[in-house]
């Protein structure tokens, strides 16, 4: 039997510790770039989110073409359940569980089915703007929107860009769990950002829950290969009859409850706050 890659074992151990300490939005991946304030000012503050500059638009179109091609190769057999829950919705925030560096291809697969692959923007951590290689190129250029703790960037750049994105009938993919947890099956608590933007721009949230299904083949990292099944849940609309703060919290709570219910349904287990690698990590090989 193939031995599991040591780097992956370390990440699984980080996940286990985070669950035990009830810190379910903690960073567990190691080696991600650390953004300095100088880098933030050079790269992030004036980031061309809408790709208005010709050179940035050109890179974005190349990146999207690559992502579309990879998506079609990866997801020729990926099933989508509940497509009717997003059909007819022109502008929305899509939320999804985050378990892989390429899990956005599942959402892109859905956009291709809708004929709207050109209407997808993706929120990413600002550190992704400094990643190298092919994945780094896609993360920087494939109509991604870096998110930063810098107030100046958020107010003067990101928020006006989001307003334009929704006005032009696009979709924005946000991972409300914040950090990627490798092959983790369970829903994790949502940060408030996605629901804040939904209420601010008065667009619905369409929750995606991606089911991970193991195969019998073991990959080079020592895990069973996986395939995916996308469950599109019913859209959640901002309740304008309640104050803004209550409105976004209501959306956050409702969305998490929906994802927990779907998790219990597809995996046939009760949701709890314990950790078991065989149950919680897709592809786990004992």
Concise summary:
The protein is built from 9 helices and 7 strands; from the N terminus they run αααββαβαβαβαββαα. With 286 residues, the chain is of the alpha/beta class. It has one domain (6-280): Glycerol-3-phosphate (1)-acyltransferase (3-Layer(aba) Sandwich), CATH 3.40.1130.
Report Rg.
19 Å
Measured by DSSP, the beta-strand proportion falls in 15-25%
C-alpha end-to-end distance: 9 Å
CATH level 1 class label: Alpha Beta
Helix count equals 9
Major sheet size, sense and barrel closure:
7 strands, mixed
Structure classification = alpha/beta
As for the number of domains, it is 1
Name the helicity range.
40-55%
| Inertia-based shape | globular
Order of helices and strands: HHHEEHEHEHEHEEHH
| Mean pLDDT, all residues | 95
Q: How many E strands?
A: 7
Q: What is the CATH third-level topology name?
A: Glycerol-3-phosphate (1)-acyltransferase
Reading side by side through the largest sheet, how are the strands ordered? Answer: 1-7-6-2-5-3-4
Question: Which spans have pLDDT < 50 for at least 5 consecutive residues?
Answer: none
CATH architecture descriptor name? 3-Layer(aba) Sandwich
Overview features:
single chain, alpha/beta, Glycerol-3-phosphate (1)-acyltransferase
Describe the structure.
- With 286 residues, the chain is α/β, with parallel strands linked by helices.
- The protein has one domain: Glycerol-3-phosphate (1)-acyltransferase, CATH 3.40.1130.
- 41% of the residues lie in helices and 16% in strands.
- It is built from nine helices and seven strands, in the order αααββαβαβαβαββαα.
- The protein has helices spanning 6-20, 37-44, 54-74, 104-114, 133-141, 151-167, 193-201, 244-267, 277-280; strands at residues 79-81, 92-96, 120-125, 144-147, 171-174, 205-218, 224-232.
- The chain has a seven-stranded mixed β-sheet, with helices on both faces.
- Helix 5 (133-141) links the parallel strand 3 and strand 4.
- The protein is globular and about 50 Å long.
- The protein starts with 5 loop residues before the first helix and ends in a 6-residue tail after the last helix.
- The model has no long low-confidence stretch (mean pLDDT 95).
């Amino acid at each position: 039997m193939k031995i599991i890659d040591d780097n992956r074992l370390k990440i699984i151990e980080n996940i286990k510790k985070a669950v035990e300490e009830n810190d379910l939005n903690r960073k567990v991946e190691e080696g991600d770039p650390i953004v300095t304030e100088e880098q933030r000012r050079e790269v992030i503050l004036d980031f061309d989110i809408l790709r208005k500059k010709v050179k940035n638009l050109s890179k974005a179109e190349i990146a999207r073409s690559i992502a579309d091609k990879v998506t079609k190769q990866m997801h020729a057999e990926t099933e989508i359940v509940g497509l009717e829950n997003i059909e007819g919705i022109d502008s929305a925030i899509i939320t999804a569980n985050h378990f892989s560096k390429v899990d956005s291809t599942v959402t892109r697969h859905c956009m291709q089915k809708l004929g709207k692959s050109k209407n997808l923007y993706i929120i990413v951590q600002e550190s992704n703007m400094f990643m190298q290689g092919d994945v780094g190129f896609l993360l920087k250029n494939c109509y991604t929107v870096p998110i930063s703790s810098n107030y100046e960037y958020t107010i003067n750049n990101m928020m006006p860009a989001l307003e334009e994105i929704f006005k032009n009938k696009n979709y924005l993919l946000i991972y409300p769990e914040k950090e990627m947890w490798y092959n983790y099956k369970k829903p994790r608590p949502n940060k408030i950002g996605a629901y804040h933007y939904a209420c601010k721009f008065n667009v619905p949230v369409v929750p995606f829950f991606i089911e991970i299904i193991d195969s019998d083949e073991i990959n080079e990292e020592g895990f069973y290969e996986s395939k995916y099944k996308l469950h599109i849940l019913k859209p959640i609309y901002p309740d304008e009859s309640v104050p803004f703060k209550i409105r976004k919290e209501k959306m956050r709570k409702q969305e998490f409850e929906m994802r927990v219910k779907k998790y219990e349904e597809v995996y046939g287990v009760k949701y709890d706050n314990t950790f078991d690698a065989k149950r919680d990590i897709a592809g786990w090989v004992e």
